[in-house]
Amino acid sequence: MPDLWPAGEERVHGAADLATGGPRRTILLVDDEAPLRRALARVLRDAGYAVIQASSVAEALQAIESPVLDAIVTDVSMPGDSGLALCAAARERGIDAPVLLMTGVPTIDSAVEAVERGALRYLRKPVGIDELVGAVREAVRAHDAAIARRKGAVLLADAEKVRTEERELAARFERAIASMALAFQPIVQPKTRALLGFEALLRCGEPSLASPGNLLSAAEHLGRLEVLGRAIRRSVAAVAGGAPAPLMFVNLHPRDLLDEDLYSPSSALASLAGRVVLEITERTSLEDLDGLEARIARLKALGYRIAVDDLGAGYSGLTSILRLRPDVVKLDMALVRHVDSDPAKMRLVKAMVSTLDDLGAITVGEGVETPDERDALADAGCQCMQGYLFARPGPPFPSASWT
Length: 403
Ligand code: G
Ligand code: MN
Prior knowledge:
Layout (H helix, E strand, L loop, with lengths): L25 E5 L3 H13 L3 E5 L2 H7 L7 E5 L7 H10 L6 E5 L4 H9 L4 E4 L4 H50 L2 E9 L4 E10 L8 H11 L2 H16 L6 E6 L23 E5 L11 H10 L3 E7 L7 H6 L3 E4 L1 H4 L6 H16 L3 E4 L5 H9 L4 E2 L18
Parallel strand pairs: 1-2, 1-3, 3-4, 4-5, 7-8, 8-9, 9-10, 10-11, 11-12, 12-13
Antiparallel strand pairs: 6-7
This protein binds guanosine-5'-monophosphate and manganese (II) ion (MN).
């Protein structure tokens, strides 16, 4: 039976180290001479260390499998393998606890081998109490310092990686802004074949930020939402005059509501405010937006209309209808998809259209892809629609198809 856990030995991690006041440290002590080993173990325990004892290299290797070791103190010449072999085996297993070798007869050869195998230092037998405790304390300190250096190096490398990624993202964002273009998709009334308006949709030539969601996330991350929002509104204003429909729908990021430029009566878009519907979606929460109601009131006073976008998508809640009092509500395509073959969905859409009508809001069904969805929406009382069935988003200005 290996003498790994002598009676009365308790290994309590987290108990204070009497020597340093830090957490209790664990020392593996290896010597084939039992009385000597026990005496050294007592010395180390008295100095505040937890001690694991082993009487051979084989036993020691069993002991180093699991516990976290702060240092290894080992005899060099033992029957079977020598302490130098333990040193090498520990390094092979990725255990970097410093190794202190005890020997009666240090030779040049064994010293050279010890260094090669990663031993920290020699202790000459017989080892004195103060010498042992001092050497162990030193070893633990060296181990701590090595761990701290490694952690520091990892943190530095991480920070460098983050900086590189940020720089690359910023460069991609600049390319996206430079190549930004708007696509327009008509919003139609199929019954009369009238065009209610066009929604301006964000597009760019930077492939990694091609989806508007990615581009907006990048802008958010880089603190460039304001730049992006202003660029979109300027671009809309530049082409809106030529649109063959009364209204222009422009998506706002909730944070655009904090940009004073949006409220400037002299902005390019403000001169067209009477024709502009600002679409607001709750992709990021409106809840904590400072003075939301007052901001919406200012926009309405400038002549803008307000739409709640994506109603029925996970993130767009019914309360936004109460808070924004929108002129238009856009039903998310999740509510439109298969509305013709899903009676529960049909009833829900019908009830919403009727309620919104009572509240004085127009409902637009988004993402209409089939004639059956179109007809079901119309039956539910939803007269305004948008979707691939009528036109895909395109350069100013795609015409709608009715077949
Ligand atoms: O969140 P918002 O409703 O603003 O997003 C509209 C998006 O939906 C646009 O990117 C547009 O290209 C896309 N879209 C428009 N019509 C359809 C459609 O009929 N089907 C699908 N799957 N997407 C559509
Ligand atoms: Mn929209």
